[in-house]
Design goal:
Layout lengths: L1 E6 L4 E8 L2 E9 L11 H23 L8 E7 L3 H18 L3 E5 H7 L12 E6 L4 E8 L2 E7 L5 H12 L5 H9 L31 H13 L9 H29 L4 E5 L6 H12 L4 E3 L3 H4 L3 H15 L18
Parallel strand pairs: 1-4, 4-5, 6-9, 9-10
Antiparallel strand pairs: 1-2, 2-3, 6-7, 7-8
This protein binds 5'-O-[(R)-(carboxyoxy)(hydroxy)phosphoryl]adenosine (KG4) and zinc ion.
Zinc ion binds next to α3.
Length: 344
């Protein structure tokens, strides 16, 4: 069974081919046009998807050595995301599927992130705790079995990746902020500044009503006040200061993510953890969670960086789990759903 998967919810235009649930190819075209604006410009994103979708799909099929006629189903992200960007992927998927008489499977982008760890050889084991940390979401989920999810908590304000992007913008480091902060943090002192850690579990078992909720806007505001007090100017920046701020900011975010994930694993007596979403590429998070998880005998799966940020391979693997559980349900009425929630 050859599955063509498409992802176009934000600024990555991507296609992947899976054969019976095994990844054969993935092509990701990142739209560089947004970097000079400090964030994704929706109008530019949808226009770029229009130009990229055909060559990206053709390259994906070519790399997998699968012809258009040999595709058995198309999976596509239908939300959450930018309406104009989603429309391009969905319209392409529907047109392709109806011209070939094959089914279309709509996939929730967050379910894609959630199942992305299954693209690796070393896979999570059910039940597992998933930490999904992207530019738009921060969620802790108890995944009891395929497509049986319990949302334990999520952010009340900024997502973790959004905090990285906003702090990078304050420091004048460009967009996206995560990778550059990650790099600079390596050379800075994580104890130089004490940024707030919100809703930390009150005890090691996470026994606190709020303990699985997140909030990152306080850290960002704290960085803003620090920069104002220091009369910081991105044009005349002190490299050591920037590295120390990056290291201290990243340490605060990582402390919260690690404490809550480990406390969720303990609370639900689960020894498998999967981390996904763009922030899962963070070096500091990977190191700290790996070591905290080993202290409770839990195993953590971090997908490789390529599968952490938006890509169509994760949409394909989520579609695979979806139709294995619910059967192949084609939906040509699929429409973009920008605020689509995760199914529970
Ligand atoms: O999952 P993703 O590609 O897109 C969304 O669905 O949002 O995540 C993008 C986010 C951005 O906020 C970016 O700054 C962040 O992931 N990110 C990182 C790293 N690489 C990407 N954050 C921290 N450390 C990184 N190495
Ligand atoms: Zn994403």
């Amino acid at each position: 069974m050859n599955l063509l998967a498409i992802e176009s919810s934000c600024d990555e235009c991507s296609a992947a081919v899976l054969q019976d649930g095994t990844l054969k190819s993935v092509v990701i075209s990142s739209q560089l046009v947004h970097s000079e604006y400090g964030g994704v410009v929706p109008e530019l994103a949808s226009r770029a998807h229009m130009e990229l979708i055909v060559p990206v799909v053709e390259e994906g099929l070519r790399k997998a050595s699968v012809s258009k006629d040999d595709v058995d189903a198309v999976a596509v992200t239908y939300g959450p995301g930018l309406a104009g960007s989603l429309i391009v992927g969905i319209s392409f998927a529907k047109a392709f599927a109806s011209s070939k008489g094959i089914p279309v499977v709509g996939v929730n982008h967050m379910e894609g992130h959630l199942y992305s760890a299954f693209l690796e050889d070393k896979k999570p084991e059910f039940p597992f705790i998933a930490l999904v940390v992207s530019g738009g979401h921060t969620m802790l989920i108890h995944v009891k079995e395929p497509f049986s999810h319990e949302l334990l908590g999520q952010t009340r304000d900024d997502a973790a990746g959004e905090a990285f992007d906003k702090v990078a913008k304050l420091l004048g480091l460009g967009y996206p902020g995560g990778p550059v902060i990650d790099k600079l943090a390596k050379e800075g002192n994580p104890k130089a500044f004490n940024f707030p850690r919100a809703f930390m579990p009150k005890n090691a078992n996470g026994e606190d009503g709020d303990s699985f909720e997140f909030s990152f806007s306080g850290i960002k505001t704290s960085v803003l006040y620090l920069l104002r007090d220091l009369k910081y100017s991105p044009e005349k920046r002190d490299e050591k200061l920037v590295k120390d701020i990056c290291a201290s900011f990243q340490a605060a975010v990582v402390d919260v993510l690690v404490a809550k994930t480990v406390s969720a694993a303990r609370r639900f007596n689960v020894n498998s953890i999967a981390v996904a979403g763009g922030v899962a590429a963070n070096r500091g998070l990977r190191e700290a969670l790996q070591s905290a998880a080993s202290s409770i005998d839990a195993k953590v799966v971090f997908p490789r960086s390529l599968y952490c940020t938006d890509n169509a391979a994760m949409i394909g693997i989520a579609a695979h789990f979806k139709y294995r559980k619910f059967g192949m349900v084609s939906d040509l009425t699929l429409k973009p759903t920008p605020n689509l929630a995760l199914s529970f």
